[in-house]
Input
Amino acid sequence: MTKTEKPLSTKVVTGKVRLSYLHAWEPHSSTPEQEPKYSAAILVPKTDTATIKKIQDAIEAAKEQGKAKWGGKIPAGIKLPLRDGDLEKDDPAYKGHYFFNANSKTKPNIVDVDTNVILDKSEVYSGCYARVSVNFYPFNASSTAKGVAVGLNSIQKLEDGEPFSGRSSAAADFTEPVEDFLA
Output
């Protein structure tokens, strides 16, 4: 990199993505040994080439930063965050998407399209559409666990989507007229 070149940023603000496995309101841990964190799986449509390019560039920048942690070079076989939903998930929601997991020890900022803070926990959920601000960074957890991870900064809800909870809505459950059930 020359003096006039600007280093690539590790921060990315995505285009329209879908949130899955969302734990933005309360920290969560899959096991008792793990520290609870705020987290989300971020589903990026494969058609959003601009966001994918920003993510790939941020991963490369994080790998460059990681050289200091990894003995001056990028090790072979490091763990990278961007994954292919068509290949790695047997879930229709992930089809046609890349995805990555992001987490944080601190609660992410959660806002609406006008950047007003959202306080109602039912407003932002797994399945809704959003933009997210994330930061890619290198990690060196052990001699064999090296890679690039993703920090979750902020979530901007864009619109509702079908919830991924598997739970149906009352409106969908009770479509028959009430009169049919009253004496």
Summary: The longest strand covers residues 146-159. The chain has a mean pLDDT of 91. Residues 85 and 91 are 8 Å apart (CA to CA).
